[in-house]
Design goal:
The chain is of the alpha/beta class and about 325 residues long. It has one domain: 3-Layer(aba) Sandwich (Rossmann fold), CATH 3.40.50. About 40% of the residues lie in helices and about 15% in strands. The chain is built from 14 helices and 8 strands. It has an 8-stranded mixed sheet with strand order 1-2-4-3-5-6-7-8, sandwiched between helices.
């Protein structure tokens, strides 16, 4: 990670930590849960070496970014996109448009960024989480509970303090190891009191792409910040739904490349493959140019397949 610079920028009422490397057109990397800027470490170095300026912030509530309110009501897509626009205005005032790369929750944030401010985005590479058009007839949590039940991870995340207490009993390190090594394409359920379902005494074998040092970095940050900030994004789902009523049926009108692993639980969710491959995705994102499904890859794809993903990003954005 030598050569990556770190700074804190005051934006939109918070103090945002940003990792940065390289010179040239800006590529903004947006992480998901339970990630940090660190999830993009391989891509930052790659893009900097290929003539781009990589920017990877810790989103509000995460890592070394501080000053965000604790209430979930302050974690809507409007807040988070507001942070990113303010960040770009502060650190890249000379660039009207930037390239955007998102994963997991970062992909959701990126979709919203392109909906709200397409004038600021040159092209988008999104991973794992497809575009999810607003359904005006049903709130997200109501739909998830009806389909997956109360043990579904997003439903378990809703009660403030509840899952945090369970994570505290399990231990930060083990929680992060369980999440980041997840390779089961089935829906993720976390039954109360059983959570990941494994014995706390059973060692978790890290895959070749994830080192002890990587886990230690994540642990050091989450032990300081806690999980609540990241969980608040899930807790704002219904509020997001209410606030985005004006964007019902709106299209994402920027050039898009979408990448997902065939073992990713998001790709194997009900209806996802049909939406991606049978016209729905292209209808809602008319400038969708490529869909890449990587065989044998799971959810944390940019860490699992760093060279391949970095090249996919570069090959797409250098066209513009």
């Amino acid at each position: 990670m030598e050569g990556i610079e770190h700074k804190t920028v005051s934006v939109n009422g918070i103090n945002m930590h940003v990792a940065e490397m390289g010179q040239g057109p800006v590529v903004l990397f947006i992480h998901g849960f339970p990630e940090l800027w660190y999830a993009w470490r391989h891509q930052i170095v790659y893009m900097a070496a290929h003539g781009y300026r990589a920017l990877a912030p810790d989103l509000r509530g995460y890592g070394d970014t501080t000053g965000a309110p604790t209430s979930a009501a302050s974690y809507t897509s409007l807040h988070v996109v507001g942070d990113l626009i303010a960040l770009l205005d502060a650190v890249a005032p000379d660039q009207d448009q930037v390239f955007v790369v998102g994963h997991d929750w970062g992909a959701l944030v990126a979709w919203y960024l392109c909906l709200y401010r397409p004038d600021r985005v040159k092209a988008l590479v999104n991973m794992s989480v497809m575009l999810s058009p607003r359904n005006p007839k049903i709130k997200p949590l109501q739909g998830l509970r009806a389909f997956y039940g109360d043990d579904y991870y997003i439903c378990r995340f809703q009660e403030p303090g509840d899952i945090e207490a369970e994570f505290a009993r399990i231990g930060t390190k083990r929680v992060l190891e369980n999440f980041i090594t997840l390779c089961n394409p089935a829906p993720l359920c976390l039954p109360k009191g059983k959570c990941f379902g494994d014995s706390p005494d059973t060692p978790i074998i890290l895959p070749s792409w994830l080192s002890k040092e990587d886990i230690d970095y994540y642990v050091s940050k989450y032990e300081k910040s806690g999980f609540t900030g990241g969980l608040n994004y899930y807790r704002a789902l219904d509020l997001n739904w209410e606030l985005t009523a004006p964007w019902t049926k709106a299209q994402v009108k920027v050039p898009v490349k979408f990448i997902v692993g065939d073992l990713d639980l998001t790709y194997n969710a009900a209806g996802t493959k049909e939406y991606i491959h049978k016209g729905g995705f292209k209808r809602d994102a008319p400038f969708l140019q490529e869909v890449i499904v990587i065989e044998g890859a799971s959810h944390f794809i940019q860490e699992e397949k760093p060279e391949e993903i970095s090249k996919h990003i570069y090959d797409f954005i250098q066209q513009f």
